[in-house]
Fold:
Amino acid sequence: MRRAPFSGIGLLLLACLATSPCRSDELKDLYFGEALFYAHQGYFFEALERLDTEVKQHDDLDEPELDTLYYHIDAAEFSLGDFELRYRMHHRAGRAIKAVLEGAVDEVIRNDAAFRLARIHFQKNQMADAMRALERIDGKIPESIRDDIEFLRANIYLAEGRPADAVDALKHLQGSDSFGGFAAYNLGIAYLQDGQQEAALTQLDRAGQIATDDPAELAIRDKSNLVLGTVLLEAGEFDQAVPFLNRVRLDGPFSNQALLSSGWASMSTDNFERAVVPWKILAEREVTDSATQEAMLGLPYAYGKLNVHGRAAIFYGRALDSFSAEVEKLNVSIESIREGKFLQALIREEIRKDKDWVIRLRSLPETPETYYLMELLATHDFQTGLQNYLDLADLRRKLLAWQASFDSFDDMVDIRYDHYEPLLPDVDKQFRELDSRMRLRIEQHKMLVRRRDDLLTTPRPEFLATREEQNVLLRIEQIEAQLNGSDAIVTESLTQRVLRLKGLLAWTLETEYHARLSTFDKNLRGLDQAMAETQEQYDQYVRARQAATHSYVGYEAPITRLRAEARSAVEKIDLLMARQGHLLEVVAIEELIARRGRLESYGDKARFALADSYDRATQSQARRDEP
Amino acid sequence: MSSLIRKLMLLLLVSSPATPIVAQELAGNDMRSLDGQVQEIKSDVLNIASELSVLEERLLYPSNTQVALFVSIAEDETFRLDAVQIEINGELATHHIYSFKELEALQKGGVQRIYTGNVATGDHELSVTMIGKLKNGKEFNESDSFVFAKGVKPRALGITFAGPGSGKSGIHVGDW
Structure:
């Protein structure tokens, strides 16, 4: 995964999904993978909802080591922090990571957690806390975040106004694969802030020449050249500034400012022809850009300096037309925003499906209220406010959809209640009968098992006598009892016969004992299986019975509570959206009014210059016409 | 002279009426205050969502009948997954056509829960079909069938796709 480095001294920290398990790590928890699936698509609400639930369930387990999330719990908790940051929940972000940090964890994991916590504090603009978190890093540091830690440390120093310390940290990162271009640029800025002008210029020159094809690094290379050119321009080194400004790519994000500055650098050395080149390019670009607007005035000014007053007049005229058209557009935009159309346009879901929706909004002819959205987004507060407004609109949509689900849940519960309630009394009656029979059989089975176990330790052949043998034994005992009270002569022969019979039976029982015990054991084992199957059916029935009840009992309270919470949340969101929306409109209108004022001033200037150019052109023509 | 003009122009560029600046600062303070409240409501709604999903799962997919199917792409695969169709016991359970974002999320290691449903305890047949395109532009279509047993606990099955060419089936179903 590519790391997203800091974008220079703007100190914008781009959190990335650095905490997801590496692709090479085997994913053992599907639900964690599901959260990542959403996070990788930028759906951080869904990712958070799933991962938060999964982590909570894991924490509630008696034996968490048996859960599949156990293998990823640290990564999952780090991810929670990352997702919260990405979903702009700075207040909550870090909670889970702190838990890791304060737990009894391995040194490497603790250091990783400390780094992530520092990054969160940094993003929350809590520099002292960020530095304290970094100071907790001790011992073995994961190779993958070693450069990240140093880069973060340098940025904290810069934010705290300690450029000399930042210089030391950044020097170590100059060969970094991840931060090469960014560290080079930041080092130049650190030198500048530290007052080391010469070193700063050398470093920015170096940063402005790095070889790369990565779009982010190309942008930072452009920025290095622009800053270097601007520093030289402000120092009055106009000729030296131009080559650096010319290094900035014409299609990069800093090209407008570079073209403008390049023109002024040439003008400052009275090299008017050279100034015309960048300004001519710039004057053809998007007219809402302030650099373009300045170039539209600068270009005819340069022509005037070249004594080409006719052409100057033409370009002043074009600028005037363009400014007038822009003022008109601004008026329409302001009016449209006042009518509430700005907010309506922003929450049009089909537009935001497009990655470049901000740019697209500007080009839609039917939405004049959004022509200047790109320019408004330049301010951090507006960006935060706009993003919050969009997030609130998303939350509102979700809550309204859930409210419809509550009605469906109620219907489902009612239907199940109506279906099961009349059936269950009969079913329960039959079940009670079955249950008592089952219990009896279970007791009988247990008794037989006990008897078998006893026989294994204390052989009792009579216990294995057949029913017929038992009857014979009983009869013999009865005869013996009768003989005890009879005549001695008769008794003697009968007693002998009874003893022979008894002996015969005892012989059979003793000699067949082992065979009978084996048969008994075999039959009992067969019964075990039958009993287990019966028990399974019984359990299945109990589960089905419970499932029937669980399908409609116990939902009323949570549904009622969730419904009330959702309703209350929608009310709060409506209130917040109204306030947030109003603020956005106020800021947007104020900004557009300021722009209009500026353009009107430009227009006045262009009007005077146009007249002056005409005069000069006429005079020049007259001079040429003189014999 | 040129320097004077430039300074005038820069002055024009940076100067704006005082009122908007004050208004913007005030608006900035209000926005920051609102930001805190927005974070609170996000937290509230997340809690509702979490409870709701648990409730929904209990109500719609009781554990004794619940089966959930997850889809992932094997590591280092370069093929483009266009669509997936899944049948359980010969009946269509779900089909899905992948967007670029979804495909990218799968390639980065994300796992998509493609289906959650109910089946009775016992053995069931799972048929999976994937349709995709190889790096060389060749389209492919592969199907395979598996048997899985459903017990009393919720059943989760992970389906992993790999491009054809390894000689083995590109569809692997794992137990979770």
Remarks:
- Confidence is low (pLDDT under 50) at residues 1-19 of chain A.
- The longest helix of chain A spans residues 380-457.
